Amino acid sequence: MKNIKLENPWVIAFLAVAFFVPYLGQTHLFDWDEINFAESAREMLVSGNYLRVQVDFQPFWEKPPLFFWLQALSMKMFGINEFAARFPNAVVGVFTLLTFYFLGKRLVDARFGFLWALVYLGSVTPHLYFKSGIIDPWFNYFMFLSVVNFSFPDAKNTAKSFLLAGIFAGLAVWTKGPVGVGVPTLVLAALWIIQQVQKKNNQATIGDYSVKNLLIYAITAGVFTIGWMLAIILESGWATFVAFLQYLYRLGATSEADHGQPFYYHFVVVLIGCFPISVIGLKYVAVAFKPLIARWKPQVADKMTLPMPAFSLPMLCLFWVVMIVFSIVKTKIVHYSSMAYFPLSYLAALWLHQWLKGEIVWPRWMTVMVLLIGFILSLVLTLVPLIGMNPTAFIPYIDDKFAVANLQAPVEWAGNEWLWGVLYFGAICVALVRWKKQKQMAIRILFFSTSLLMFFYTANVVPKIEGYTQRTVIDFYEAKKGQDVYVWPIGNRSYAQFFYFKKPMGVRPEASDEEWLLNGPVDKPTFLIARIDRADAYRVNPNLEFLKEENGFVFFRRKPDYQKIAESLRKME
C-alpha cells in the first residue's frame, strides 16, 4: 500500500467511480428537473423520435436533445429507471476529474492535477451534481473545454485549439441552448480586451486572439448553433422555435416559474454550497478587484498577485462572467451558477498548491470562515435527521400546512443519521488543527471527509427526505401504472405523473387539461391529486369523490361521466 501513489489517473478514476456510481438508483427522481429530463428521454424511446424533445408527447422546446440522447442510451442499457437517468452524470464526473488531473499535470505537475481533482470531488454541490439527473454537469463540462482550448491552446497549432473551442461551445448549445456559446464567447471577449490593454501598456500578452483564430471559433460555434436552430424548426416548426426564444426572454427579464431571487443570490449559493473551495479560492477570486483596490490601498493591491496568469486569468474571467451574468438574469435557480464551480476549484487548488510550497501564508480569517461555514453546514446536516426523527417537537414552529402534513409520513430512521453532521464538523476541526505541521494531511482530511459525508448522506438521509416530500404521490402513480385510467396533479405543476405512471403514447390530449379532467366528459376512471394546502376548492367539487388524505396530499377519484360523454357526442353530430 505504501507504494501506491495517489497522484495517478487510475486512482482518480477509481475515486470518481466509487463516489459517483453507487446508490444512483436508491432514491426516486426529484420533481421537477430530474423527472422532467428523464421523462423526455423515456418518450424518445417510446416514440422512436430522437430529434424532437417531448414531454407528455408534446414538443418541449426549453431544452435541446443531446443530454436526453445520453439518458436514452443509458436507459437502453439499464432500463427506464432512476439509475439510468443519473448514470450519464456519473460518467461525466469521471471525465471531469480526469480532465482536471491531466490539465493540472500539463500546467504544473501530477501533484497539482491530483489536488485539483480532489478539491472538486471534496466540495459539496460540485460532488452532488454528479449524482443527479440534471443537465448541467455535461453542459458545464463542454463550456469548460471550450474555454480551456482557446485560453490554453496548443502552441504548435492554435487554429486547431480554436476549432475545438468552437466545437465544444456548439456541443454545449446542443446540451442546454444558446448560453452554451454565450458564456465562452463573453470570456473570449474579456480576454481579448485584456490582451489589447496589455499591448497598449507594452506588457506581456496572454493568449493568441488573432482575427484568424477568432473567426475559426465563431464559424465553428455558429455552425453548431444554427444547426440546432434549424433542427428545431424542421422537426417542430417555426412556432416552436419562437416559443423557445420567448422562453429565453422570460428567463432573463422575468422571474420564470416564481424563481425570482435577490441579486446576491448566486454569491450566497456558491459561498455555502461550494464549501470548502468557496473559502479557499476567495483570495484569488478577489484579484479581479485589484484595480479598484489599488486606488485606495496600493500596498494591499501590490500583494494581490495571480500565479500562472496565462491560464489563471481566463479562469478568473470565467468565474466572474458566470456570476455577473446569472446575477443579472431575473430567473435564479441554484444550478445556473454551477459553471462557476470549475474555475473556482482551479483557483482554490492553485492557492493550496502555493501554500504547500510555502509561498503564501494561511490567513486567520480563512480559518474563521472555514469554521463558520463548516459549522452552519454541519448544523443543517445534523438538524435534518433530528427533525425527521422528532417531528412533533418541531411542528409547532412550522407555519406551512403542507410541510407539517409531509412530516406525518411514516419514514423509518435508524436513529444515528444525525451523527454525520457532527462527525463532519469534527473532521473540519481536526484538519484545521493539522494545518501548520501536516499541510498535505490536513487538505486530504478536509476534502475526503466532505466526499465521504456526501456519499453516506445521499445513501442514508436523502432517501428519507424524499420519503417526506414526494414518495407518497409517486407510490400512487406507480400503483396505477398499466391501468386504463387517467392520473393528474391538480393545483400544482409536476412531471411525476408522466414518468412514474409511465403514461403511454396516444392518450387523448384533453387528458392533460385540468379543467376537462375536473368537469369535462371523462371516459375513464380519473384520479386527481392535490396538495393539502391547495385542496379546499376541489373538496367541494360535486364531480369528485374524496379517496384519502395522506402525508400532505389529497386524493380524489372521478368516475366516467357517461351523461356528459353522450352530450359531447350529440354536439359533434
Structure description:
- 64% of the residues lie in helices and 5% in strands.
- It is mainly alpha-helical and 573 residues long.
Low-confidence stretches: none
Task: Estimate what percentage of residues fall within beta strands.
Answer: under 5%
How many helices does DSSP assign?
Answer: 29
Mean pLDDT: 89
Bulk shape: globular
Q: Order of strands side by side in the largest beta sheet?
A: 3-4-6-5
Total count of strands: 6
Largest sheet: 4 strands, mixed
Task: State Rg.
Answer: 26 Å
What structural class should be given to the helix and strand makeup?
Answer: mainly alpha
Helix content: 55-70%
Through-space gap between termini: 82 Å
What's the layout of helices and strands?
Blueprint: H1 9-20, H2 33-47, E1 54-55, E2 58-59, H3 66-78, H4 82-107, H5 110-121, H6 124-129, H7 136-151, H8 158-176, H9 179-200, H10 211-236, H11 238-253, H12 265-273, H13 277-280, H14 282-285, H15 290-296, H16 298-302, H17 309-328, H18 341-356, H19 364-389, H20 391-394, H21 401-406, H22 419-433, H23 439-460, H24 462-469, H25 471-480, E3 486-489, H26 496-499, H27 514-519, E4 526-531, H28 536-539, E5 545-550, E6 553-558, H29 562-572
Parallel strand pairs: 3-4
Antiparallel strand pairs: 1-2, 4-6, 5-6
